[in-house]
Amino acid sequence: MERRVFLGTLAAGAALAGHSRAAGTDPPLRVGLIGCGWYGGVVLKAAFEAGGVEVVALCDVDTAHLDSMGELVAERQSKAPVRYGDWRELLDHEGLQAVVIATPPHWHALPFIEACRRGLDIYCEKPLAYDVREGQAMVAAAAQASDAVIQVGFQRRQAGAIRQAAQYIQDGAPGRIVTAAAQIHYPAELKDPTPKDPPSTLDWDRWCGPAPKLPYSEQVGHFAWRLEKAYGNGHLVDWGIHWIDTIRMALGLGMPRAVTAAGGLYDLKGRITTPDVLQVYFEFDECPVTWNHRIFPTAELTPETNIGMSFFGEKESVFLNDNRFVVAPVDKDAERRVVEGKNDAQAAHLANWLDAVRTRGEVSCPPEDAFQSTAAVQLAMVALEVGGRVEWDDAAKAVRGNPQATALLKRDYRGPWVHPGQS
Ligand SMILES: NC(=O)c1ccc[n+]([C@@H]2O[C@H](COP(=O)([O-])OP(=O)(O)OC[C@H]3O[C@@H](n4cnc5c(N)ncnc54)[C@H](O)[C@@H]3O)[C@@H](O)[C@H]2O)c1
Asked: Which atom of ligand 1 is closest in space to residue 39's alpha carbon?
């Protein structure tokens, strides 16, 4: 037995709440964008849809990306934004009120902390940071800038099906959730890993910035950096982090007290530097959460649950992803329900930030919360590297009794950049 329901009201309500800004009479918010790649464009489009913004400045280290983002902005507003190659100059732009940070993760911490010092409102993409100590320094900087409205880009918190499923779980019908599992199995899109000269429009040295300067190849450059250890740190940190964040939100979890990881490169060796097979066991106080991925090309046996999360409760199991949740009762005679929803999460998350900027209100993903989701997956990668289980002391914000893992919480910066965190 199975019943299908279409989810409408909750998702639409969430998105519409934010669209009020467009109808208001406030002067537009003067926004700058640092990082004009794929997702910077997605975020800007969502901001234009929410309304009430003027993009006054763009920054990138690739002039081709500045050109294309300039064209996107020109479709939406008559005044051309000023273009910068150095984010410090963008932050100096006169009259700037808010900044969107959509650079790769190794370039989040320094612009974020500087924007906090200037009291700017911030929308920063996930993951919060490249390493744990950067993340802590960002949380501390945000706390100092207590008047600033800061949202981190875990937009799936706003997806209609996810919101409704989280509420359903919190209301208690599935009973106590004994364990949760998340996975994203998909064939990664790979590029050519052969070192070559970077495109003439790209300043590779500045792109690498505080991170190690690896020889340029298409597989570590734009977009593809996700699966490079020195930049994106792999599929769990890049994409899986969304599910870990969603599970934390749905179950009200803080930091795991221990994380165990196993995996490696079994098919894509020589192509990427992060695991193509990974399993992680997060021990949260409330319940264990597992993560699983396979990212080599393979035929999937259960495509309908390849990308998503499962919550196993005493009375019901709940599977969910961006568009859909499925409820399967333990009672075999009870009917199974499928709830379908529209995914308008990105528009809603941006609108949520812009509304909070206007009202000086709360955002759905503040830095401390983003830190916990980010640090959880970073600890998984640390556990993988040290070969076992890593215990986290959340009060001390430290790994327990493991100097090798402790050393991995903070990586050395490439000069002249100085790491903002403490050892
Ligand atoms: N929330 C989501 O669902 C989601 C989805 C995709 C990407 N993201 C996040 O968005 C961010 C950007 O990802 P992307 O896919 O757009 O990558 P991308 O490689 O397409 O774009 C990154 C851009 O940043 C620029 N850049 C690098 N260093 C810079 C610097 N010092 N100053 C200014 N610009 C610099 C690059 O030249 C490039 O144009 C990442 O943090 C990523 O994790 C989030």
From this structure: 16
126 lines ligand 1 (CB under 6 A): yes
Domain-located, residue 2 = no
**What pTM, to 2 d.p., does this model score?**
0.95
What is the spatial distance between Cα 398 and Cα 415, in angstroms, rounded to a whole number?
Answer: 26
Q: Which residues contact 416 (CB under 8 A, 6 or more apart)?
A: none
What CATH number is attached to the domain comprising 52?
3.40.50.720
Mean pLDDT by 10 residues, the chain (423 residues): 57 40 72 98 97 98 98 97 98 98 98 98 98 98 97 95 94 98 96 98 98 98 98 98 98 98 98 98 98 96 95 98 95 94 90 97 97 98 97 97 98 97 87
Pairing outcome for strands 53-59 and 29-34 = parallel
Helix (H, G, I), strand (E, B), or coil: what is residue 348?
helix
CA of 102 to the centre of ligand 1 (A): 4
- Tally the domains of the chain: 2
Task: Give the C-alpha separation, 262 to 264, whole Å.
Answer: 7
- CB of 322 within 6 A of ligand 1: the answer is no
- Residue 52 in any domain: the answer is yes
Residue 414 maps to a domain: no
